[in-house]
């Protein structure tokens, strides 16, 4: 399992995301019997874009996960959405939605760290499911409110 909870966003702190993530961890260890060493827990500062993407991609090669095993991915934090630049419709309905890592918008070597788009998550999940099977549950405890409005 991968459990992510972020409260300490720069300029936009959240409340309850880390405690929700810890509650999910308790549930899957105590009620579902998942061993603690099978859980990747990324909270606040450890939930960088690189750590999130690398941890998710790491499921692909994790020898402890057999084909057909259940995989749980939980994210509690900020979500975002952006208009798809390829969509030229008057009423676009396929905005790009994204989960926001703790380091979103930080600059590294002159490049801003982006959010993790739904397209990127889909690519990662497709790769995982190709070798581990389709028993992947993704729980997103966030809001993509921007996708409901056109500015």
TrEMBL record:
GO terms for biological process: proteolysis. Residues 1-144 form the Peptidase C14 caspase domain. InterPro entries: Metacaspase, Pept_C14_caspase. One of its GO terms (molecular function) is cysteine-type endopeptidase activity. It holds the Pfam family Peptidase_C14. Coiled coil: none annotated. Belongs to the peptidase C14B family. GO terms for cellular component: cytoplasm. This is Peptidase C14 caspase domain-containing protein. It comes from Armillaria solidipes.
């Amino acid at each position: 399992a991968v459990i992510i909870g972020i409260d300490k966003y720069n300029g936009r702190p959240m409340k309850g995301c880390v405690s929700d993530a810890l509650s999910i961890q308790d549930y899957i260890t105590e009620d579902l019997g998942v061993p603690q060493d099978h859980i990747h827990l990324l909270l606040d500062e450890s939930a960088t874009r690189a750590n999130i993407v690398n941890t998710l991609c790491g499921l692909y090669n994790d020898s402890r996960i057999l084909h057909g095993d259940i995989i749980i991915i939980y994210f509690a934090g900020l979500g975002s959405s952006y208009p798809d630049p390829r969509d030229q419709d008057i009423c676009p309905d396929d905005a790009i939605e994204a989960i926001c890592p703790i380091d979103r918008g930080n600059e590294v070597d002159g490049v801003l760290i982006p959010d993790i788009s739904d397209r990127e998550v889909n690519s990662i999940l497709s790769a995982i499911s190709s070798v581990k099977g389709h028993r992947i549950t993704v729980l997103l405890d966030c809001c993509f409110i921007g996708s409901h409005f056109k500015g």
